[in-house]
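Q: What does the assembled structure look like for these inputs?
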Amino acid sequence: MSLVNDSPLCNGCLLLLLIVLLVASCKQRSASEFVSVKGPLIALTRVRVIDGAGSSAKDDQTIIIDSGRITAIGPASEVAVPASATTLDLSGHTALPGLVGMHNHLFYSTDGGARDVLATDSFALLYLAAGVTTIRTAGTLNLGRDIATKKSIDDGVSAGPKIHLSSPYVEHAAGQRFDPEKITDQINEWADQGVTSLKIYEHVTRAEFGVVIDAAHKRGLKVTGHVCAVGFTVAAQAGIDNLEHGLAVDTEFFSRKKVDECPTGNEWVPELTRVDVRSEPVQKMIQELVRRRVAVTSTLAIFESFLADKFQLDPRMREVLSEDAYNDCVAEIEEGKADPRWSRIWEVMLKKEMQFEREFVNAGGLLMTGVDPTGWGGVVAGFGDQRGVELLVAAGFTPEEAIRIATLNGATFLGNADRIGTLAAGKQADVVIVRGNPAANIADIRNVTVVFKDGVGYDSAKLIESVRGLVGE
Ligand SMILES: [Zn+2]
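A:
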C-alpha cells in the first residue's frame, strides 16, 4: 500500500503517520524498552554477594526475588530455587545493593563551569544505568522538572532512580538577608510540593540558619548545606542535619575568616591544606558533628576533577556528552596542564579530605557519598558515583566499607534503611549486578550488566546507549 493517494483523507493519513512516529519515538525512551529481566519470580544463582552492611563478600550465593522484594538470600546449599523462577546463572558476577546517591543533581555544568544545563532525563537514565537506584537531588535548578521526572519514573512511564526531591538552593547574594517570613512561606510551599530536603548554600548567615532550619524541621524536612559564611561547627550547633563535601569547604579554620562572610575565590583552601586533620581544632569539629549526628556527604569524584592537569576523563563520558561538552572538558584539562597551580593545591586538599573522611568515620560519624556532577563538567551522573566509591577505597576504606557508605549509610539518613541499602530478605529488590569482583578490584563496580529496581531488571548498556551525545545539550 502506498502512503501517497489522492483521497481527501490524505492530510488525515499524514497526521496519523506523524502520531505513529511520535508514539514510536516516545516509546524508545519508555521504561519497558530497557527491561531485560522481568519477574515476578527471579532467582539469581552462583553469585558473589556484597551486602552493603559492610560484611565481607560471600561467594556462591542465591538470591530469590518475588514481586519486587528479596524473599531469600544465602548460600546456594541453603536457598531453594523455585521451579517457576526465571533463573540467572551469575557465576563470575557480584551482586550489591542499588547505590544511594546523596549529592545527585539532575543538572550538569559545562563551558568550564560557566553554564549549568538541565540534564533531568539523561541523568535519570545514567544514574540507573550505573546502579544508582536512589538519589537525593541535593539542590535543584528546576524543581518543576524534577517533580515531573520523579512522577514519570514512579508511574513506571520512564526509567530512572527513586528520587528524593531537594529544594532549589536556599541562597542570597553576599551582604543581603532573607526576610524570615518570606523564606518560611517558601519552605512551606516546597514542602507542599513534595520536597523532603532543603539545600542551604554559601552566603546564608548564622541567624538565618536558625530560621531556615526551624521552618524545615517543622515540616519534617532534613536540612543539608554547602556552607561557607558559616563554618561546620556553627552549622552543626544551629541544627543542620547534613554537611556537603567535607573539610574542603569548611571555612572555620581560615585565619582571615569574618563572621557571616563567605571568603571569595576559594582563598581559604591553600591555608586549609596546611591544617593538620589530627590537630585539636579539627578533631573538636569532628566530635561536634558526631555528637550532634550531623552526616557528611563525600564528593571525592568532583574534587578529583580539580586536579585538572592529572585528571583522566572517564572514557565512557565521550559517548554520553554532546560534542561541545566533550570539547569543553578537553579544553579544561589542557588549561589545567598549562597552569597547574590550583591543581597542586587540590592534590594536597584531596588527600586531606580523604583523611578527614576516614577520621570522621572512625569517630562514629555517618559518611555518605554523591557525585555532584558540576564543577567544570569533569564528572557525570552514575559514572561519577562509581568513581566516588573507587576514591573511598583510595582513601583507605575497604571495598565493602566503601560500598556501605554508598548504600546503607545514605538509606539510613533518608530513613529508608528498612527498605533499601542492603541485600537482605524483606528488602526491596534494588540489586546491581556487576561482572567481576569489586571486593578484590573496586573498579569492577563499573562493569554493571543488569540493575534491578523493585525487582525489575534494566539493561545497563541499553540505558547508556539511549543518552548518547545528550549530556550538555
Ligand atoms: Zn552540588
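The chain has two domains: 34-98+430-466, 99-413.
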